[in-house]
TrEMBL record:
It comes from Drosophila yakuba (Fruit fly). Keywords: Cytoplasm, Hydrolase, Nucleus, Proteasome. The 26S proteasome consists of a 20S proteasome core and two 19S regulatory subunits. The 20S proteasome core is composed of 28 subunits that are arranged in four stacked rings, resulting in a barrel-shaped structure. The two end rings are each formed by seven alpha subunits, and the two central rings are each formed by seven beta subunits. The catalytic chamber with the active sites is on the inside of the barrel. Component of the proteasome complex. This is Proteasome subunit beta. PANTHER family: METALLOPROTEASE TLDD (PTHR32194), PROTEASOME SUBUNIT BETA TYPE-1 (PTHR32194:SF2). It comes from the Eukaryota. InterPro entries: Ntn_hydrolases_N, Proteasome_beta2, Proteasome_bsu_CS, Proteasome_sua/b, Proteasome_suB-type. SUPFAM superfamilies: N-terminal nucleophile aminohydrolases (Ntn hydrolases). GO terms for cellular component: cytoplasm; nucleus; proteasome core complex. Non-catalytic component of the proteasome, a multicatalytic proteinase complex which is characterized by its ability to cleave peptides with Arg, Phe, Tyr, Leu, and Glu adjacent to the leaving group at neutral or slightly basic pH. The proteasome has an ATP-dependent proteolytic activity.
């Protein structure tokens, strides 16, 4: 019942995730953060079993902090992806299998923006756009139609907004709010969340968007 989305642009990566926390058919909370900061230039979005997401995310974040303390610098985006997928696949061979799927996005000074898709079996592949969850079935056709490799952050924001609007119209589950994070050479920026209030404000205010800096 959850959805996480990602788009890679010319010099940035945009990650979006709904904030709903649910158990079976019951809605529990609407302020559940599913996107986590790995480094100053890398974030991951998680989806899956609530307890598994919490424990696995905490394990990854603590090890990323330990790596920086030990070595004096952060792990690269590809290094973080390799560490995540290696541990996720290793748990398949023991009694601590995690039901977690991820999107990892970041900006590297050498390779530029990177977006990686990781499934619950530890398989990983770099992508231009994509996501996990039930909502991706409605969003993939929108990505295929409107995505361009040279789009700017505003165009990517608008594509994500089209996806959220489609979910509002088609999806049986009401995903009330989506958090969006922009990762570029300037670092991590939290963009205006997409929800019913922001969509109404867009209609009244026009095409301009406000960016909220979280650094």
């Amino acid at each position: 019942m959850e959805t996480i989305l990602g788009v890679k642009g010319a010099d940035f990566v945009l990650l979006a995730s709904d904030t709903m926390k649910a158990k079976s058919v019951m809605w529990l909370d609407d302020e559940k953060t599913k996107t986590h900061r790995i480094t100053d230039y890398c974030m991951m979005s998680t989806i899956g079993d609530g307890g598994d997401c919490l424990q696995f995310s905490d394990f990854i974040l603590r090890n990323m902090d330990l790596y920086k303390v030990t070595n004096g610098y952060d792990l690269t985006v590809r290094g973080a992806v390799h560490f995540i997928r290696s541990n996720l696949s290793a748990y398949l061979r023991c009694n601590m299998k995690y039901q977690v799927a991820l999107l990892v996005g970041g900006f590297d000074s050498t390779t530029g923006p990177e977006l990686h898709y990781i499934d619950q079996f530890g398989n990983s592949v770099p992508i231009r756009y994509g996501g996990h969850g039930a909502g991706i079935n409605f969003c993939t056709p929108i990505f295929e139609e409107f995505y361009t490799s040279h789009m700017d952050s505003q165009a990517a924001y608008d594509v994500i907004k089209k996806c959220v609007i489609e979910l509002y119209k088609r999806f049986v589950i009401n995903l009330r709010n989506f958090d969006l994070f922009l990762i570029s050479k300037e670092g991590i920026t939290k963009m205006t969340p997409i929800n019913q209030e922001s969509l109404r404000a867009d209609i009244l205010a026009g095409p301009k968007r406000r960016l909220l800096n979280t650094k």
